[in-house]
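Sorry to interrupt, but I need a hand with the structure work. I would like you to pick a protein and set down its sequence and fold. Please put the record directly below this note.
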Amino acid sequence: MDNLSNALQLPWFLYTAVTLLGLVIGSFLNVVIFRLPKMMEQAWQRDCCELLEQAPPDTAQFSLASPNSQCRDCGAAIKPWHNIPLLSYAFLKGRCHQCGASISSRYPIVELCTALLSLAAAVVFGPTLQLLGALLLIWSLIALTGIDIDTQLLPDSITLPLLWFGLLLNLNAVFTPLNDAVIGAAAGYLTLWSVYWLFKLTTGKDGMGFGDFKLLAALGAWFGWQAIPLIIILSSFVGAFIGILLILWKKQGREVPMPFGPYLAGAGLITLFFGDQLTTAYFSFIGF
């Protein structure tokens, strides 16, 4: 154990270990992004069947571990050596080894982003408790981003543990004092909750999902109430910019709903790495 602790003090060892771990976790996050919504759907179906006193559908049950991964086109089993992060995609030239069907480029993108963001956290925080917390936050936000893009859902099974872990981590003021974390969690939830109801009462439509409230509450628990205005501003500007690009580029109608979770996640990552500087600049700008 002492040897491992000593090795982690060496920058090159820490950076290499965290980068490789990020690649492996990125591969796992691809599984989470694809399977967790299916697991949720199956759970909802079982609940509905139980409520209606009907037999549940006779379909294979999904979990993060089973069934084994397979090609979505031909059903061929994906061998372990076809799952090596980045390398397998390059070796297979982005195609199924059996039928030659194209494999989504999102898989290596998720792996690469996870590795690079994990490395950035190691560089910024070093071998500290902050690094462990930062890695957990980064991995969770990547998974939430992928799921929200695919399904416009932010699963409670990720957002709520993230909130509670943020509060527990800040018992020792790892990122912010506990008082600020508790107020941040409440302020994060109530802010978007208020916006939701104001929009609904004004237009009669739902402007966002409840998962967005919980994600902002989680970020408030991690970074404190001081970061809430910054996160909202950053996510709103990025969301507006990308929304305009989609309307102009893809001719996407304004009525087409866009997930807000990825923008909150992006703002959370910016806050993780640059939050202190940006928050100080923001409060200085408004004269607070």
About this structure: The mean pLDDT is 86. The two ends are 47 Å apart (CA to CA). Residues 11-51 form the longest helix (41 residues).
